[in-house]
Amino acid sequence: MKKDIISLLDLKKEDFDIFFKKAIELKKRFNQGIVDMPLKGKSLGLIFDKQSTRTRVAFETAMIQLGGHPIFMRSEDTQVSRDEPVKDTARVLSRYIDCLVMRTFDHTIVEEFAKNSSIPVINALTDSFHPCQILSDLMTIIEKKNGYDNIKIVWVGDGNNVANSWINAASVLGLELVVACPEKYSVKKDIIDNAFEKTKNNVVFTDDPTTAVKNADVIYTDVWASMGEETELEEKHRAFKEFQVNKELVAKAKDDAIVMHCLPAHRGEEISEDVLEAENSVFWDQAENKRHMHKAILETLISHNGYT
């Protein structure tokens, strides 16, 4: 039976740990110059509506390094843009490729592709969730903090799709997560309620970033205006003026706290230049780990036809 990753609520704790173990092992083997090609002869389709640097290149190079072949398609180049029903496109692509990665605005489109595909469908970002980003971020936390248990993770900024996926991860893994957003831009109630239906967890919501980061092991931020929200930026500048991750805020966390950002960063907005360029920053390790995690996801879903 095929498996999809549409949101992190699709996974069990055991699934997370399988991905972490495999990604870390694949990274180690890659750095040792060992070539693994378990997906030789396999094809990966990528349908993207939203612009991408890291996610697209990470998935494409992941598939190439595993011996497979990526096929990139813009939605406007497919017949979906000419009103072909999603279910028809999904059924046809299932006859051509071995896995489909989608990056789009409307989350229900990815859900519909998954419902009508006989191949694994992976959400590479929608307006609602960004599950693969959090998988690779947790991999980075495991590397830097020797695990995710008893680690305080603090989200500072907009209650966006990345924040939503952090809440989903916390729901499944029982993470200690604090979400600090301006009240008007907090995480939507339906996202919280849906996550909490699966597992009660230690997630705290606040509009005070200074209190939130006290004793934090990880501080995480993202742009204040996501793709498609650029017209709101001026208003968000006013609402988020106390939510910049800068040296003063980071100083209130633990001495060995790490700062994370999924990138691209708007320097001088949600994060200061000096924090982004700090000598011990993990942003570039975080970005690199997307490729290794994507390799783990693709190998598991395609080769093993499911994670557990």
Structure description:
- With 308 residues, the chain is an alpha/beta fold.
- It folds into 2 domains: 8-129 and 290-303, Aspartate/ornithine carbamoyltransferase (Rossmann fold), CATH 3.40.50.1370; 133-286, Aspartate/ornithine carbamoyltransferase (Rossmann fold), CATH 3.40.50.1370.
- The chain contains 12 helices and 9 strands.
- The chain has helices at residues 13-31, 54-65, 86-96, 107-116, 131-145, 161-173, 189-198, 209-212, 233-239, 247-250, 273-276, 283-303, and strands spanning 43-48, 69-74, 99-103, 121-123, 152-156, 176-180, 202-206, 218-221, 258-261.
- The strands form 2 sheets. A 5-stranded parallel beta sheet has the order 7-6-5-8-9, with helices on one face. Strands 2-1-3-4 form a 4-stranded parallel beta sheet, with helices on both faces.
- The protein is globular, with a radius of gyration of 19 Å.
- The relative contact order is 0.17.
- The model has no long low-confidence stretch (mean pLDDT 94).
Q: Count the E strands.
A: 9
> Which class of secondary structure composition applies to the elements?
alpha/beta
How many discrete domains? 2
Lateral arrangement of strands in the main beta sheet: 7-6-5-8-9
CATH superfamily of the largest domain: Aspartate/ornithine carbamoyltransferase
Q: What shape does the CA trace take?
A: globular
The poorly predicted ranges are none
CATH topology (fold) name of the largest domain: Rossmann fold
Helix content: 40-55%
Distance between the termini: 11 Å
Name of the CATH class of the largest domain: Alpha Beta
**Helical region count?**
12
Sheet of most strands: 5 strands, parallel
Strand/helix succession = HEHEHEHEHEHEHEHEHHEHH
Rg value: 19 Å
- What fraction of the residues are assigned to beta strands by DSSP? 5-15%
Q: What's the architecture of the largest domain in CATH terms?
A: 3-Layer(aba) Sandwich
Average pLDDT reading? 94
